[in-house]
Each structure stands twice: as structure tokens, then as C-alpha cells.
Amino acid sequence: MDIESYAVKLHERAERFEAWTNVDLVGLVAIYIDCATAVAFVTNVSVDPALRRTGVASSLMMQAIDFAANAGCTIMELSVNEQNESAVASYNRLGFRRTRRQGLTISMQRSLGTSA
Q1: Among 24, 33, 89, 105, which residue's CB has the most CB atoms within a 10 Å radius?
Q2: Locate the N-acetyltransferase domain: which residues (predicted)?
Q3: How many domains does the chain divide into?
């Protein structure tokens, strides 16, 4: 993979969903939409450690899911380390299911346009 062209593609096509507390960014979800395949890829999920397990990530993910569905995507995919059990459980609650595994990385996906 050419990292430079990937970075340009993300810059041009990525959508960000952010959570702020006053002037501090406390949560971020970024997705990349591949219009040719109607698939949205979650490229980043980050939450301030002090605010983990408070629903910030789930709220941002729901915003991303709604955005991707409204943009015409039919599938959303992500990758996560299988040892990050809390993230895997959270993604399961959001309707994601395991599709592949490579080493410790599992790929998960969910259909869009249906409830979790």
C-alpha cells in the first residue's frame, strides 16, 4: 500500500465525527467511504481515556453509521485487535459481526439500513 496516496484518499473522502468537552476533543470516529463498492470503512475510533465506557464511542459510531447509510453505503467494516475485548463487545452491540481473522486482528462488518 502506498501510504501517501492512502493519506490523500482519506483526506479527500474521509468523514469525521467528533465529541468535544468545552475546547477539548474527547472523541473521534473517522470513516472512509468507497463509493464504488458502497462500503464504509471505520479508520479510527479514539476516546479520551477518562471518558471511556461512557457511551462517547457508541454515540459517535451511531452518527457514522447513520451518515454512511444516508450516503448510500450498504456495509460498514472495521478492524480491531481481538484482545481489545471491550471494543469487540461494543461493536457487537452496534450490530457488527466477525467476518475474518488475520493474526490478532479481526475484521467485523454490519449491514446498513437496518437496526443493530
Answers
A1: 33
A2: 1-113
A3: 1
